[in-house]
Amino acid sequence: MKAHFTPAPVALALVSLFVSVFPAPSGAHELPEVRVTAKAEKDSSLTQPGIAQAREAAAQTAGGSNIVDAETFREGRVSTFSDTLGMATGVLAQSRFGAEETRLSIRGSGLQRTFHLRGIKLMQDGIPINQADGGSDFQAVEPLATRYIEVFRGANALRYGASTLGGAVNFVSPTGHDAPRLELRAETGSHGYQRLGLASGGVSEDGVVDYFLSASSFDQNGYRDHAGQSAQRINGNVGYRISDDIETRFYVGYAKSDSFLPGNLTMAQLQANPRQANPSNISGNQKRDIEVFRVANKTTIRFGADRLELGVWYADKTLFHPIFQVLDQQNEDYGLDLRYIANGKLFGYANEFVFGFAPSRGITRDDRFANVGGQRGARTNKLYQTASSIELYGENRLRLDDQFTLIAGLQYTRATRKSRDEFFSVGQDESFNASYTGTSPKIGVLYQATPSVQWFANLSRSYEPPSFGELTGGLTPNITQAQRGSTLEIGSRGQSRHVDWDVSIYHARLRNELLQSRVFVAGNGGAAAPQTTNADSTVHSGIELGLTGRLPASLEWRSSLLLNRFRFDGDREFGNNTLPGVPRALLRGELLHRDGQGFYVGPTLEAAGAYPIDMSNSVNAPGYTIFGFKLGQQVKRGMSWFIEARNLADRKYVATTGVSRNIGGADSAQFLPGDGRSIYAGIQWRQ
């Protein structure tokens, strides 16, 4: 199948045109320097940095990093990770069936994980949402309870102890210092979509105590059959300023998410009726119900220019998940996050050193049963699993002068995965005890070419032990090795009167990449089970481009472009074939007229190229281009509103896919259709 869109030449030409026609200004028109100096004042939080401080940290990173202001994605529907992170530079966020379930990947992390999450350290307020084994679910995150999102791609996330290929994504909540006193938000739209949010924040008169509290609900029938979802969440934090240099903050979060799973379709089924569900998903009443309770504390102590950050957290999660079998799991995870930041002189130069220690431990009680219409049938397995991880890391930033900064870092990772089989016949004990140890060095340089333009380069290693999803996610345990990689990255970010840009070019060579495909289960109605193996050698190369152009007639073009080439490297079975499951080109953009008073109106665009869905490259998912439209008005205090239309042409298209090893050109049930024509509206009031 042919791609409908080939954006690479066009996008690169646009970048060259913008940079050549609108160079960084000089003289009287010079913009403020990208680096920002900020310090915590009495009317701000020590434990929870504001967005200005977050932007400063991102600008000091010698590699791909960016900050997503929540006010930008609040201009439309706020539901999926595609809504919140779809325009973030370098992030692939594809909704699986128009609901909160999303494929999230950076630089090909967790490439074949079409459910849950792996390869990215997902955090809320700097505290891991990932379980101790590295796996994660997004349902605990409420985007309406977010002030901004930090995205540190690849080894640029070392300051958070992340050594994975993808890096780290941190959802940062408001505090009483930057939250509205009262906020009400309501969204409604197609396919029974309803979202309600209530939030409040404030600070005591003496400035010692501040608080933020958010409650929300979400319901959706779904574009497809058997795709209904509902969720309820509560998030809050309370900060106590012990002194000018000491602050402690307590966090609490609760989330309950129930979602039906419509499953994958063949291309013939998708073309005939994209709203239908896979028959086996209906007969097995396949769904994923999750309930999560999290508590945490973070304390910051400032010693002059230095500071100590200490965090502790605990999470309790239950999962009821009828798929090819019924998974009934109870998880308890807890951990410590210690970070010390020292600022001083080294060899007479300004220097910052970050030291971190992050141990965690998790216990999973994994009960499995035959799926009888979505209910527990005969027991098939009972596992008691424990995961422990220790991350020890350091990063040093040596500022040689006003232009050059050298960055070096090193992380040590020690992880164990133990599983005790408590239900087996003689000779069928599936217990195992696996351990993984690795180090990940990094070196980089940041060059401040002008006050508003930066160039950077870095060379780094990544190390990623498998989660239990890779080890025991199939019918039987499959002990895999840790994924290792080396990545070279160069790029630039900056701003001028007419254009802002953020571009990274990376090339990663991986060993033992954790690749997952689906194996069909005999006698289970065509259902498929995941199976993970290590590839020998693979290559991930790509371009990440974020661009904002300010055009005549008060028009603003904002876009995010991903170009990638992920492939096997001389594999014995697949040669140099393209790795399946992700578009080689993905563009999201919007061209909005802004009147300077918060009003905006204009078209939106999403376009993707074709890509293979199996490792043998025998079948492609077709490319697509869909258009939308939105208008609204954002005001800081008072009433805001939006109306957003998506897929105006009601096009049938493939939003994302499953993956297989070799389907021999057959029309296999691997395709997840995107939503048809949809319209959403919302209103928000702040005081």
Present the secondary structure layout.
Blueprint: H1 8-21, H2 51-59, E1 65-69, H3 70-73, H4 81-85, E2 91-95, E3 102-106, E4 121-124, E5 127-128, E6 148-153, E7 167-172, E8 183-189, E9 193-203, E10 209-220, E11 229-243, E12 246-260, H5 267-272, H6 279-283, E13 287-303, E14 306-322, E15 326-346, E16 349-372, E17 375-399, E18 404-421, E19 432-450, E20 453-464, H7 468-471, E21 483-495, E22 499-511, E23 514-520, E24 528-534, E25 537-551, E26 555-568, E27 585-594, E28 599-608, E29 611-612, E30 620-621, E31 624-633, E32 638-646, E33 654-657, E34 671-673, E35 678-686
Parallel strand pairs: 4-7
Antiparallel strand pairs: 1-6, 2-3, 4-5, 6-7, 8-9, 8-35, 9-10, 10-11, 11-12, 12-13, 13-14, 14-15, 15-16, 16-17, 17-18, 18-19, 19-20, 20-21, 21-22, 22-25, 23-24, 25-26, 26-27, 27-28, 28-31, 29-30, 31-32, 32-35, 33-34
